Amino acid sequence: MAVLAAAQLLDELMGRNRNVAPNEKVKELNWEDPEYCKYFMVKFCPHDLFVNTRADLGACSKVHDEEVRKMFQQAKPHRKIHYQEEFIRFCSSMINEVERKIQKGKMRLALSGKAELPSISPAQSQKNQEQIKILNERINGLEAEAEQAGTDGNVEQAQGLMKLCDQLKEERDSLRKQIENGHWNATAELAAAQEKQMEVCQVCGAFLIVGDAQQRIDDHLMGKQHVGFARLKSALEEITTVVQAAKEERRLGRGGGLGSEDRRSRESERDRERERDRDKRREKELDRNRSEHRVDKEKDRREKDKEREKERKDRERRDRETHRTKEREREREKDRERDRKHRSDRDSGRSRHHQYRR
Questions:
Q1: For residue range 17-53, what is the model confidence (pLDDT) as tens digits?
Q2: Residue 200 near residue 208 (C-beta atoms within 8 A)
Q3: What is the pLDDT of residues 279-328, one digit of tens each?
Q4: How far apart are CA 268 and CA 43, in angstroms?
Q5: What is the C-alpha to C-alpha distance for residues 149 and 156, in angstroms, rounded to an integer?
Q6: How far apart are CA 190 and CA 292, in angstroms?
Q7: Residues 237, 87: contact at Cβ < 8 Å?
Q8: Close Cβ partners of 82 (under 8 Å, ≥ 6 residues apart)
Q9: Cβ partners under 8 Å of residue 76, min gap 6
Q10: Which one, of 200, 185, 239, lies nearest residue 41 by Cα?
Q11: Could you say which residues of the chain have pLDDT below 50?
């Protein structure tokens, strides 16, 4: 940063072309070169506002050149909008930061203002003292009665009187604490009232003393931080108005010879918009076709599943019928076997009968 500052100082004293040889071509100025500070060309560089303050941004790394700024100011409005919008974004971020600081300061003062201590009035304090006096007399009387009851051997009565005496003592101690707290709170309130009241500056967020000396107020108003944020807010409003007006003129085609260019830009934008619409329609058509294809595939799958299920059932039915047919065939074969055996037995019996008769 120090080298850059020294180089800028030499440029101011000896000119920016101080190192150019006699036969070397001098580089022409161009405000669009990245080496130049955009904020300085638009209005001013925020880095120069808060030097040696709490809001110091450090030295700017870009070149600040008055001739380049004049060239920028003479340029056409539509070429400067990008730089102006960047200036607006940077200033807005700084203004938002100080606004948050102001809100935090207000909340801090509000919380400190709510820290009030409860106090009692003098009449209430006098009433509490009278009550304490009555309680002392009652306590002394009860202690005497309890002592007499203990002497007479009535232990239960003595214990009851001492218990009542302890309750009255607790009530007396509570009243004494109220009086003591009342005196302490009154002292604290008096000290708080004597303290200096504070307020938050609506421009830079610094804490100020209400009713402070005029010299101190003037010193704050003329300070770098206060003046810097005030200038920052003013410049932000000004540049925002300029950018909005330039955009409105471009939209209406009255941008000083920019009508044809704006029309071409709008036509190009419309062409891009139509192309995007066509792409969206094609994408929707593809999605619909893919969805229909998925539905058809699902339908075919279900049909095939039904056919396979039907074939399975038919196959099972045929298998059952085949099984039953085989069972019937086996039963008939068994019946025929029994019939053959029966006839064979019957024939053999007849043969033995004829032999016996002979």
A1: 555 555 655 567 788 888 889 899 998 999 988 888 8
A2: yes
A3: 777 777 777 777 777 777 787 788 888 888 888 888 888 888 888 888 88
A4: 33
A5: 9
A6: 84
A7: no
A8: none
A9: 255, 256, 258
A10: 239
A11: 115-117, 193-195, 255-259
> Which tokens in the block code for residue 220?
């704050």
Cα 208 to Cα 105, 215, 217, 310, 338, distances in angstroms: 11, 13, 8, 93, 128
- The neighbour count for residue 160, using CB atoms within 10 Å, is 14
Q: Are residues 263 and 253 in contact, defined by beta-carbon separation less than 8 angstroms?
A: yes
Residues 31 and 4 sit within 8 Å (Cβ to Cβ): no
CA atoms of 32 and 82, how far apart (whole Å): 11
Which has the closest alpha carbon to 192: 200, 201, 180, 184? 184
Distance (Å) of CA 316 to CA 17, 308, 320: 102, 12, 6
The tokens for 154 are 């009535």
- The pLDDT, as a whole number, for residue 95 is 92
Could you tell me the pTM of the whole model?
0.47
Question: Where are any strands of DSSP class E within 176-303?
Answer: 198-200, 207-209
DSSP letter (8 states) at residue 46: G
Question: So what's the pLDDT on residue 258?
Answer: 45
Nearest C-alpha neighbor of 235 from the set 227, 246, 224? 227
User: Percent of the chain having pLDDT more than 90?
Assistant: 10
Report the half-sphere exposure of 186 (CA within 13 A, side-chain side).
10
Cα 62 to Cα 44: distance, rounded to the nearest angstrom? 12
Contact predicate 62/7, CB 8 Å: no
Structure-block tokens of residue 299 = 């339908």
Which pLDDT score is estimated for 183?
Answer: 59
The conformational region for residue 173 under phi > 0 = left, psi -120 to 50 = alpha, else beta, is alpha
What pLDDT score does 184 carry?
Answer: 59
Sequence-separated (6 or more) residues with CB below 8 Å from residue 13: none
Would you mind telling me the total number of residues written for the chain in this entry?
Answer: 358
Residue in the block written with tokens 């941004």: 57
pLDDT computed for residue 3 by the predictor: 60
Closest CA to 79 of 235, 288, 256, 236: 256
